[in-house]
Design brief:
It is built from 4 helices and 4 strands, in the order H-E-E-H-H-E-E-H. The chain has a domain of 96 residues. The radius of gyration is 18 Å and the shape is globular. The chain has 156 residues and is an alpha+beta fold. The chain is 53% helix and 14% strand.
Length: 156
């Protein structure tokens, strides 16, 4: 399905604003509950919820905002993107803008509060915005694999 420029902009805004709203709500809950308590361990001790402030950029992303702003404007309004790609890039944009919002309002720090622990393996502590960025990038990669989308059962 081909999308008009207006449809791409509306989809981008809806997804990005939803991502920012959900992430900021989760960070507010983390600030008010996890910052004053011991870390919370849930789901058989796999998820550790713990308050942390991250003063570094995730994977170095975010060092040149004006160039990035031009990239997003050009990319998301380009008629060459599939709907799934617009959605995926909107997740990345929403997650990135939410972390940027945090950094601008918190003296350069983003609130992180989730760590996954499986046996001796553990992730770095992260937040919902980081998860949205990774999910968007994963969707973008998978949607561009040569066999995506898989043919339906009725097609030859």
């Amino acid at each position: 399905m081909s999308m008009t420029r207006t449809q791409r902009v509306i989809l981008t805004l809806l997804v990005a604003i939803s991502c920012i709203g959900c992430d900021q709500a989760a960070k507010t809950v983390a600030r008010h509950t996890l910052a004053v308590n011991e870390p919370l361990r849930v789901f058989n001790d796999i998820f550790h919820l713990q308050y942390s402030e991250n003063h570094g950029a995730m994977l170095g992303i975010g060092s040149d905002l004006p160039a990035e702003a031009r990239f997003w404007l050009f990319t998301l309004t380009s008629g060459k993107l599939k709907t799934v790609e617009v959605f995926a890039l909107s997740l990345v944009l929403g997650g990135g803008l939410s972390n940027l919002t945090d950094r601008l309002g918190r003296g350069g720090a983003a609130v992180d509060f989730v760590m996954i622990v499986v046996g001796p393996w553990r992730t770095a502590i992260f937040n919902l915005a980081d998860l949205l960025i990774v999910a968007g990038l994963a969707i973008l990669v998978v949607s561009n694999l040569p066999w995506f989308p898989l043919p339906s059962k009725g097609s030859k």
